[in-house]
């Protein structure tokens, strides 16, 4: 098998990473049904339009690459998988250009992680117009004519899990009242709204309404540096703040850097159980994180993409959200970080 081909192509304003893992090398175009890969196998071409490569999404993508490589090495599999990858860096216009670039490659399926549930709709429409199957790849889209959908994370449920952890904390610390700052991701992203709304069940619960107060919510665009700056502002504006909850680990760890510099203690919750967050728990900087098993997500995502690309039977919606969620705090951190 030839080595993985890695070439950086510029198509318009989008940088498209072309990665081909077929034994016979890179396929250029074709209609999908007549292409052949290594050892006479039919080649399936998959386009992946990722929304970002933050730490969590990088974990998902790296596992997907591992699975593709293993699939191609297994002689019992009927296909050889080639793939194209793009990263929108959380920019809708970039994603639209990325998908146009993928369409030009004429893959057998395109898997799109929507940057915005409304703004990314034209990308799905473009796939439909080009008669290329398109998968809503885990982030939700306000478009009903996709070929299939992968529901990976119950974002509202993850927010509720954060709320439940804080309720347990309050039950164990009867003299504590939590004054909370919430660090959100990007405005207009449905999943981030759902995470926030799930956390807000804490403040709506009659049993805790006098012991948990939301002081402010701010968007920090998934940036640790922005969250650090926001936390510095909050410590001045809200000296009573003693709890920070975030839509991901990177932002809450940025906030905790600001707190550590000021020698301020905080209850702090993140999400995604990234290595950054897990190490933060190990070091006593982060209290807990809600994790998602990206190995399971990557495996189910690739299996769905292969099924769609090869015209095999598949469900319109594949929901794995209940399988992938877990909680990490000081009680079980040693299971994840040695």
From TrEMBL:
Signal peptide: 1-22
Keyword Repeat (UniProt): no
Domain Periplasmic binding protein: from-to ranges: 58-312
Keywords, comma-separated and alphabetical: Signal
Localization per Swiss-Prot or TrEMBL: Cell envelope
UniProt cross-references to InterPro entries, sorted A to Z: Peripla_BP_I, SBP_2_dom
PROSITE patterns: PROKAR_LIPOPROTEIN
Gene3D superfamilies for this protein: 3.40.50.2300
Keyword Signal: yes
Family: Belongs to the bacterial solute-binding protein 2 family.
Protein's name in the database: Sugar ABC transporter substrate-binding protein
Native source species: Brotonthovivens ammoniilytica
């Amino acid at each position: 098998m030839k080595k993985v081909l890695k070439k950086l192509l510029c198509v318009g304003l989008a940088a498209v990473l072309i990665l081909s893992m077929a034994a016979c090398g890179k396929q250029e175009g074709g209609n999908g049904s007549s292409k052949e890969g290594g050892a006479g196998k039919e080649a399936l071409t998959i386009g992946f339009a990722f929304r970002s490569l933050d730490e969590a999404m990088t974990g998902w993508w790296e596992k997907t690459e591992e699975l593709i490589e293993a699939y191609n090495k297994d002689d019992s599999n009927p296909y050889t998988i080639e793939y194209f990858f793009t990263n929108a860096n959380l920019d809708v216009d970039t994603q639209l250009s990325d998908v146009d670039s993928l369409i030009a490659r004429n893959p057998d399926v395109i898997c799109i992680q929507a940057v915005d549930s409304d703004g990314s709709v034209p990308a799905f429409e473009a796939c439909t117009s080009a008669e290329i199957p398109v998968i809503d790849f885990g982030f939700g889209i306000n478009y009903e004519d996709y070929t299939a959908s992968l529901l990976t994370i119950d974002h509202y449920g993850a927010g509720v899990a954060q709320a439940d952890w804080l309720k347990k904390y309050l039950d164990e610390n009867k003299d504590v009242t939590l004054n909370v700052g919430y660090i959100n991701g990007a405005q207009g992203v449905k999943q981030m709204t759902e995470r926030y709304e799930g956390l807000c069940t804490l403040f709506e619960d009659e049993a805790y309404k006098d012991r948990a107060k939301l002081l402010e919510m701010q968007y920090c665009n998934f940036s640790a540096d922005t969250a650090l700056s926001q936390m510095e502002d909050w410590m001045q504006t809200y000296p009573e703040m003693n709890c920070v909850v975030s839509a991901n680990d990177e932002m809450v760890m940025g906030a905790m850097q600001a707190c550590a510099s000021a020698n301020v203690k905080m209850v702090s919750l993140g999400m995604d159980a990234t290595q950054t967050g897990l190490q933060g728990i190990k070091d006593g900087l982060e209290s807990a994180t809600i994790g998602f098993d990206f190995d399971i997500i990557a495996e189910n995502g690739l299996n769905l993409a292969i099924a769609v690309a090869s015209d095999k039977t598949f469900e319109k919606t594949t929901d794995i959200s209940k399988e992938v969620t877990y909680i990490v705090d000081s009680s079980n951190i040693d299971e994840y970080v040695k």
